[in-house]
Design a protein that fits this description.
mainly beta
């Protein structure tokens, strides 16, 4: 049974930094590409950063140069370092496999996420 537990969110001022962590259970972690997704109020959840099992990374344009995704396979953990945060980064952040882990019947697993709020 897969399980992802996200942490590290909070309230930060514009220009601030946060580091999100996600611990994954199960034996799938090291062989899967992982991603950080976010869902802003009244918007769809979107992938913002991804990392392959080999460590190659990709970012959406809006976070490129500010966010850094990394992974530690020995700890079953994926990180998202977020610098120069902007109010538009406010969202609930989730980690998951990339693409999201399928449970079957068109459903996907999602953890509880961690809230990031950027506000002065």
């Amino acid at each position: 049974q897969v399980r992802f537990v996200e942490s590290g969110g909070g309230l930060v001022q514009p220009g601030g930094t946060l580091r999100l962590s996600c611990v994954a259970s199960g034996s799938i972690f090291s062989s899967y590409a992982m991603g950080w997704y976010r869902q802003a109020p009244e918007k769809q959840r979107v992938l913002v950063a991804s990392i392959t099992s080999g460590g190659s990374t990709k970012y959406v344009a809006s976070v490129k140069g500010r966010f850094t995704i990394s992974r530690d396979n020995a700890k079953n953990t994926v990180y998202l370092q977020m610098n120069s945060l902007k109010p538009e980064d406010t969202a609930v952040y989730y980690c998951n496999t990339n693409p999201p882990y399928a449970l079957g019947a068109g459903k996907y697993y999602w953890g509880q996420g961690t809230q990031v709020t950027v506000s002065s």
